[in-house]
Design goal:
The protein is 0% helix and 53% strand. By secondary structure, it is mostly beta strands.
Length: 127
């Protein structure tokens, strides 16, 4: 059974930075792509960033491109989301997720392709 545990959320002023971590257990981490999604109050969950199983391919939502960086450490079974130049509109609960498929050649941004989810971590950006 897969377990994903996010950490690193908190309250930060606009323009500040946070780094989210997601520790995974239960499956061979290095075989699966990992993604970050977020959900703001009253809004649907949306894609933020994804990284391939090898770490060689990444993709970002337009709204975070150039400000957020996704990375992974397969030795630590952990995926990260470095968030810089934060804006109030980045306020949301952030979730990490693990791809259903192993060794996917092309990263996916579809939530339905991710079969395991963490409990989420709150990020609040004040103006």
């Amino acid at each position: 059974q897969v377990q994903l545990v996010e950490s690193g959320g908190g309250l930060v002023q606009a323009g500040g930075s946070l780094r989210l971590s997601c520790a995974a257990s239960g499956r061979i981490f290095s075989r699966y792509g990992m993604g970050w999604f977020r959900q703001a109050p009253g809004k649907e969950r949306e894609f933020v960033a994804v990284i391939s199983w090898s770490g060689g391919s990444t993709y970002y939502a337009e709204s975070v491109k150039g400000r957020f960086t996704i990375s992974r450490d397969n030795a630590k079974n952990t995926v990260y989301l470095q968030m810089n130049s934060l804006k109030p509109e980045d306020t949301a609960v952030y979730y990490c997720a693990q791809d259903r498929a192993t060794w996917r050649e092309r990263v996916t941004t579809r939530a339905a392709d991710f079969g395991s989810w963490g409990q989420g971590t709150q990020v609040t950006v004040s103006s």
